[in-house]
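Supplementary Note 2. Why include the ligand at all?

Several targets in our set were suspected to adopt different conformations when bound, so apo predictions alone were not considered sufficient. For every target with a known small-molecule partner we therefore ran a joint prediction. The input for glycine is given below.
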Amino acid sequence: MQISAKEFQQRRQHLMALMGENSVAILPAAPVRTRNRDVDHPYRQDSDFYYLSGFTEPQAVMVLKPGRKHGEFILFCRERDPERELWDGYITGPERAGELFGADDAFPINDINDILPGLIEGCDKVYYSMGSNQDFDNKVMSWIKVIRSKVRNGAQPPNEFMVLDHFLHDLRLYKSKKEVQLMKQAGKISAEAHVMGMRACRAGLWEYQLEGVYLNHFIQNGCRSSAYPSIVGGGVNACTLHYIENQDKLREGDLVLVDAGCEYQYYAADITRTYPVSGVFSPEQKVLYQMVLDAQAAAIKQVKPGSHWDQPHQAAIEVITQGLLDIGILKGRLSDLVAKEAYKPYYMHKTGHWLGLDVHDVGEYKVGGEWRLLEPGMVLTVEPGIYIAPNAKGIAKKWRGIGIRIEDDVLVTKEGCEILTDQVPKEIDAIEQLMSDRSG
Ligand code: GLY
Ligand code: MN
Ligand code: MN
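The joint prediction is reproduced in token form.
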């Protein structure tokens, strides 16, 4: 189950059609990042670079030049080196880049300063993702300087520098059949991990041990990494939105919030479930949990072609505000409370984001100043929550220190939507039932 060479080629072609004639796009591979001293972080290719090439090695630059006679896709990459390969493993090398990755031309990365100015020269527009990689910005400027230094000899520097993101990220927003298949697989593996987490959960376990259940399932299923650092927050830790320390003991009577998803073939899943450590919800936990679940259902109902991006969020806000009114945490009229965002101390984030090669995937949320309309092929998360801080003022003690989020990945379809992560239960009864079957 992989993206085919043909699909990578189609993506490049789509992008080049949007760029138009007399233009060139330049994309750098992700840099290698040091973890400590001489140990690097595991390498992960930049998502834009991967999307257009499937090439997963560092120290590479891809160039797309629509209409170039000698080929439109040029790849600069590391040269083969038996000595280095003995230590660090396989290197594709320019001589194999054509056959394996469809490059029309390939050169050693060490020759880029001599060759790239010549590829840019004479183009009107240069597309690149400016401002996201300072080193690369400097390099592009140095190549332009080389061209400018030769204007008296007839060299033509480019006239316009264009942000590549607009076209490229719009393409990435619409998932192909194959991408949807991969995202379904990412969703399935992650959902299974959540079921295993619910089964393994018990008081006395460390949060990181529960995290280990998820990571093990990811890795056993071909996902060498999660798509983002997992959040495993027991009790009040669930009220810290980006809690990733995962270092406390799970306690009887608390809920645990687990936000964990795998990366499968470069595609992310992003699931949150919140469940009782003991396997049974307390009455207060039930009330708040059901509120979040109802908010999620209302939001998912809005995920359909023609809805705009913010409609699911608005639906979730209404349900949560009404719920907080019903239990006396908020007081006043629903419409006033919504208008003045009275829910914000307890629900401070948005209801979702695009999902794809990146967990917070690319793609614009507004177009021409208006919320974007949802269209088939887009994938987003729907993840409302309620977080009552342990020191929340003017709120009965019984509600404090409870944090709940429920998150699923949803594909917009022609008819409405499809939930990619529904293999893990979220109804109160279903969670309690599943957890009651735990052994030991
Ligand atoms: N896991 C990050 C998020 O839910 O947005
Ligand atoms: Mn998310
Ligand atoms: Mn998440």
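The mean pLDDT is 97. The chain has two domains: 5-171, 174-436. Comparable summaries for the other entries are listed in the accompanying table.
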